[in-house]
Specification:
heterodimer; A: alpha/beta; globular; B: 5-stranded antiparallel sheet; 4-stranded antiparallel sheet
Chain lengths: 579, 182
């Protein structure tokens, strides 16, 4: 079938099962936006290209399917670099199509030209500059394969205008069904080595104080059920990193919650005191380990990861298994079964009672606000948690509100927590929530945002309002760049430098209304519940609820940067308790 | 005086160099990907040679890596993640045959030209070009032999020197296969 490159691009995207994409047209990508009119793919018109990228990420987070964004060349391409890097750090499957100046103009500093593949080389799993229209079907097919297999990640496809422009003879091509992938340097292996899995099972059967350290690889491999089976078979407690909140139910008696810099005391301390860490799809990030030399000093390490470069990158494992988390866990469960299943597990009652002792002495805690004080953010999040459906999807920005959301929410379902972990991208929440809602229109989607974050990407609420994505935003307004304020209080002798944002400017209620949303403002504890109930009722437009919160609330526990996790600082009210 | 900062990822032990022979797809931008990876991860390239292979789909990079800064395992694993990298051989000097080409122009007044030609003979180097008071020679050999030659020429006054960086292939098996083996 004869067609032009632009038609081929749309057809190729359709063939990959793309049902929705996020983007914004411009000069170089214009020829592709014409065949888009005849395509089955829904296009969501964003207000800033960064929004398109984060929406694609949010979509991928919530559905497991690759998110797709399409933008033009030059400034549009540079605007989407942040989402690419975000997706790269958090292993999010995403395909980004960028326009490029005509092939003959590349290198001439043409209008809206930039070296997109050069700029994005280090923030993508792979990228392509397509030079011939005939390559488009194969490249798109390969791009989706690379984005979604092995360790998932973003792939960028840069397309010069002439090969998609029907007025240019270089765009003429014959459609073909792409061949099998010819990628001699890319052959991801999914199955773990059987002998290593037996060794891991043996270590597990010998361990007196084991902890499962579960990371984002659980969710990426659709391995939540397998993890549950492993935990219940062995009776081993599970910590869920920021990237795996929801990968193991918070209400499960074996769940210890989030470890790390702002993890709860028990999760942090259980890892410190463990004699075996079973790291599943986790990468020993510095926010989890604290000072590496002081991290889990008594623990042997079993490390399972799809990416062999993670094995031994930070901590030398005793058993390193390269493979897909779900498949390896399933094989591990089998191997443990052959060794006697739960009967082969040693008596771990002393360890369990230590854990429950920590849980009793060091629960998450905060002091409720007094009459003349503004709201406590933790209170707002508890109320929100208790007033929304159990399977609500929560998208978060980055900072204090993100940590409180992760701490205080009860995640009992996989794919209900959407956040920026590795890159820590402020402004992630609103566009990511829109992408999640696009992928899961049946679910209630709340964005938990800070005032600093909100001001970075609020314009995408226009996208949400006009494109019909009735997301809800809980705006924790504490008038500060809160996490930075906390660091300046704790580590810079309360010398506050450029962190005050003002309390009343902008007027968030009016701004929300101007953006096409319902705007609500809450200042006292008794208003919190009714405002959330009111927001939950709105289904025809987005809602922004501004919660006016105390400025000086800090996130605890906290492991100060560079310190050992054994030096975790607990809430001031708990500091005298025996550890 | 303080100790050099230790990168927890890369470590600080080791010393010397290792040679990686990297087969890559012969596609635009592959060298930039490899070079960019080294820069981004803090690995140091001592020398780099790029050449086509007998199969036109692939090129071969011979990269000499300073192992002071990086455990070779991380370098290899990160390189292997590049989609265009097909395979990687790690070669140490004992198990490989290494060659490097040097071209060098040396001051050579007619009165002392003979001394330089003596060195050229000893090292089996080649005279490429002769000027009134300069001489251009080339030498192919193991990197250490090339080093020696360069050191011996230096007192005469090196005007310009160009070295290719080394290329290497693994040494071949010496023992014949066991005729009784199945």
């Amino acid at each position: 079938m004869k067609m032009n490159g632009g038609q081929a691009l749309m057809k190729a995207l359709e063939s990959e099962g793309v049902d929705i994409m996020f983007g914004l047209p411009g000069g170089a990508i214009l020829p592709v936006y014409d065949p888009l009119l005849d395509s089955s793919i829904r296009h969501v018109l964003v207000r800033h290209e960064q929004g398109a990228g984060h929406m694609a990420e949010g979509y991928a987070h919530a559905t497991g399917r690759p998110g797709v964004a399409m933008v033009t060349s030059g400034p549009a391409a540079t605007n989407i670099v942040t989402p690419l890097c975000d997706a790269y750090m958090d292993s999010i499957p995403m395909v980004v199509v960028t326009g490029q100046v005509p092939y003959a103009a590349i290198g001439t500093d043409a209008f809206q030209e930039c070296d997109t593949t050069g700029i994005t080389m280090s923030v993508t799993k792979h990228n392509y500059l397509v030079t011939e229209a005939a390559d488009i079907p194969q490249v798109i097919h390969d791009a989706f394969h690379i984005a979604t297999t092995g360790r998932p990640g973003p792939v960028l496809v840069d397309i010069p205008k002439d090969i998609v422009d029907p007025n240019n003879p270089r765009s003429a091509m014959e459609w073909y069904t792409p061949k099998d992938h010819d990628l001699p340097g890319y052959r991801p292996n999914r199955t773990g080595d059987a002998e290593l899995i037996r060794q891991a099972a043996k270590l597990i059967c010998e361990a007196e104080r084991p902890v499962i350290y579960s990371g984002g690889g659980i969710l990426k491999s659709r391995g939540a059920e397998a993890l549950l089976e492993l935990a219940e078979l062995t009776g081993i407690h599970v910590v869920t990193t920021l990237m795996n909140r929801g990968g193991f139910p918070d209400d499960h008696p074996l769940c210890l919650g989030m470890p790390g810099m702002h993890g709860n005391f028990t999760a942090v301390t259980a890892m410190q005191e463990a004699d075996l860490l079973i790291a599943l799809g986790a990468r020993f990030d510095d926010r989890v380990t604290g000072k590496v030399a002081g991290f889990a000093p008594h623990a042997k390490i079993i490390h399972v990861d799809i990416d062999s470069a993670e094995l031994g990158k930070v901590r030398r494992p005793d058993v390193a298994i390269q493979g897909d988390c779900r498949l390896v866990i399933e094989d591990l469960v089998k191997a443990l079964g052959e060794m006697g299943g739960s009967d082969a597990q040693p008596d771990r009652n002393p360890w369990r009672s230590r854990i429950s002792g920590w849980q009793e002495r060091f629960p998450l805690t905060y002091e409720q606000s007094k009459d003349d004080e503004l709201l406590k953010p933790q209170f707002v999040l508890e109320q929100l948690r208790d007033s929304t459906p159990d399977d609500t999807i929560v998208a978060s920005g980055v900072g204090q509100h993100q940590m409180w959301a992760s701490q205080y929410w009860k995640f009992n379902h996989p794919y209900t927590w959407v956040n920026s972990g590795g890159l820590g991208t402020m402004g992630f929440a609103i566009p990511a929530a829109i992408g999640a809602k696009a992928g899961r229109p049946d679910r209630m989607v709340w964005a938990v945002d800070g005032d600093g974050c909100f001001q970075m990407t609020a314009q995408e609420l226009v996208t949400a309002a006009t494109e019909g994505f009735p997301i809800k935003v809980a705006l924790i307004n504490n008038a500060y760049l809160g996490m930075v304020r906390q660091w300046q209080e704790m580590f810079y002798e309360e010398r506050y430098s450029e962190v005050y944002l003002t309390r009343d400017v902008p007027d968030y209620k009016m701004w929300a209304e101007a953006l096409g949303c319902v705007g609500l403002r809450v200042e006292s504890p008794e208003e919190v519940g009714p405002a959330i109930a009111q927001a939950n009722e709105v289904d025809d437009r987005p809602v922004v609820v501004e919660f006016r919160c105390e400025a000086e609330e800090n996130v605890y526990p906290m492991v100060p940067a560079g310190m050992s996790n054994s030096d975790v600082v607990v809430d001031p009210s708990q500091q005298d308790r025996p550890r | 005086m303080s100790a050099a900062p230790t990168n927890p990822v890369l470590g600080a032990e080791g010393g010397g160099t290792t040679t990686l022979v990297v087969r890559v797809e012969n596609k635009a931008g592959v060298l930039a990907r490899v070079a960019g990876l080294f820069a981004r991860r803090g690995f140091n390239i001592e020398s780099l040679a790029v050449a086509p292979t007998d199969d036109e789909r692939f090129s071969r990079l011979t990269i000499v890596v300073g192992v002071d800064a990086a455990p070779m395992e991380q370098v290899v694993k990160q390189l292997d993640k590049l989609v265009n990298v097909v395979d990687i051989q790690e070669l140490n000097s004992a198990a490989s045959v290494e060659r490097e080409l040097m071209m060098v122009t040396v001051r050579a007044d007619p009165a002392i030209r003979g001394q330089i030609l003596d060195l050229v003979r000893v090292f089996q180097a080649t005279v490429l070009n002769v000027g009134y008071d300069e001489i251009m020679v080339s030498l192919t050999g193991s990197p250490s032999r090339v080093d020696d030659f360069e050191d011996l020429l230096r007192p005469y006054g090196i005007v310009e020197v160009q070295r290719t960086g080394k290329v290497a292939l693994p040494k071949l098996v010496k023992s014949a296969p066991d005729p009784l083996a199945p």
